[in-house]
From TrEMBL:
The entry's keywords: Membrane, Secreted, Transmembrane, Transmembrane helix
Main location: secreted
Domain Lipase: from-to ranges: 85-338
GO CC terms in record: extracellular space
Subcellular localization(s) per the UniProt record: Secreted
Membrane-crossing residue ranges in chain numbering: 7-25
Coiled coil (UniProt feature): none
Protein's UniProt name: Lipase domain-containing protein
InterPro entries for the chain: AB_hydrolase_fold, Lipase, Lipase_N, TAG_lipase
Species: Aquatica leii
PANTHER family, per the entry: LIPASE (PTHR11610), LIPASE DOMAIN-CONTAINING PROTEIN-RELATED (PTHR11610:SF173)
Family: Belongs to the AB hydrolase superfamily. Lipase family.
Amino acid sequence: MVVLTPTIIFFNTLLVTSFMFIVSMSNPQGNFESATAFSSNPILNMSRLKESIASVNWSEYFEVNKDNSKTNVVSDPLYVVNETYLDPYGPNVQFILFTRNNPPYNLKMNAHENFVSSYFNYSRPTKIIIHGFISSIKETVFQMSKNAYLETGDYNVIGMDWSVLCEFEYFTAMRGAQIAGAYLGAFINYLVEEGVDLENIHVIGHSLGAHVAAMGADKIKAGKIHRITGLDPAGPGYNDVPAIYRLDPSDAKLVDVIHTNMRLLSLSQPQGHLDFYPNGGRFQPGCPELSDIWTVTNSLECNHGRAYYYFAETIRNKRAFKSYRCAHVDVQKLDMCIIPTEVYMGQEDTYEVLDCSKNLLKVDRAIQTNDWQMAVEKCLLSNVSWYGLYFLKTKAVPPYSFS
Ligand SMILES: *[C@@H]1O[C@H](CO)[C@@H](O)[C@H](O)[C@H]1NC(C)=O
Ligand SMILES: *[C@@H]1O[C@H](CO)[C@@H](O)[C@H](O)[C@H]1NC(C)=O
Ligand SMILES: *[C@@H]1O[C@H](CO)[C@@H](O)[C@H](O)[C@H]1NC(C)=O
Ligand SMILES: *[C@@H]1O[C@H](CO)[C@@H](O)[C@H](O)[C@H]1NC(C)=O
Ligand SMILES: *[C@@H]1O[C@H](CO)[C@@H](O)[C@H](O)[C@H]1NC(C)=O
């Protein structure tokens, strides 16, 4: 893992942020329909992406000041760990198994002896956690969820480290995500060969890691994994790409998504069977304002990062975030999220499958809109389970839940 200077982080954030503006301008509604209307594939056309970035007029967005000494990235010493389990001569993507009572174990792919001598336990649920852009498994994004799982139960927690493929700049990292996705698919295929049940596998990905999960899922031969949780799936570059390159409900039997910085660093449109929009999904209480150049990086990191703080809290407190269902597929109209439910964010056992031919239509007709009707029609046509969009509020400081 390279040591990143604040300047690089800062520049990358600018790059990402500027691309976000291009993306949001090309898709001003960010709505359900445009999410499915794909005309081009910017992931594969790198020259077009680079042209778009080059054409950004920075001063339209920021008062750019060359002195960036005030920007700094704080890393939490609690979560800095001994990373000797990562093999510096190993592959670009490594899978480290963490269990309650054993030291971390580097799982090699297609190495039966290695797998047999690991502490993998077939009776326990398997959680594969994938970090995002400029990160690694020594960062908070992995450590928080890993610790929350292992402090509350017995799991095979596998940290997928693809830091080598996403450490420089965003567009290279998007390519890296495709490569990492292929590794993940191969790894899960290998787990299946070793007798692991796909039903026991839950993949959790933050930011670009959510798309890595999706691209990996597409490569699984034996069927679908049980669940993917997308934590604020990366937005820049992913708004108008075909579903095979990004997270969508076809990637697992259950896909749930937490949106915390949508239209800035992440996607706004629904991407799962259930999409949660804490505090509206864009800005989180307690994060710095996006108002000036000194806080822009911290603000984006804070809002984007909240997805994994909230998620870790859902592991420790199973009834943390009770949610309201939204009566509108257009997330711009989050004030229409007024239908109380017994659904808790992150808690699969509380997720209600809406029978679109029945329950969905029972919702107060006064708040039904064209978009809502459209969702119902889509649901009826596709004859699939339709879960919905959810809203919830959090506090500004941990613990974030009110309960
Ligand atoms: C990629 O984008 C460039 C610039 O817009 C364009 O000239 C080129 O034809 C595109 N390539 C493909 C394969 O679409
Ligand atoms: C960039 O935007 C600023 C502020 O709107 C404007 O004054 C300037 O002329 C623009 N530069 C270019 C090259 O378009
Ligand atoms: C990291 O862990 C290894 C193996 O457990 C140990 O040998 C090494 O001393 C540790 N390094 C640090 C800096 O704690
Ligand atoms: C495997 O996990 C199950 C369930 O947690 C436990 O009962 C069993 O003892 C474990 N087996 C081993 C070998 O640790
Ligand atoms: C829709 O799903 C229901 C329940 O699973 C099934 O009985 C019905 O045949 C399906 N209809 C179509 C058109 O596939």
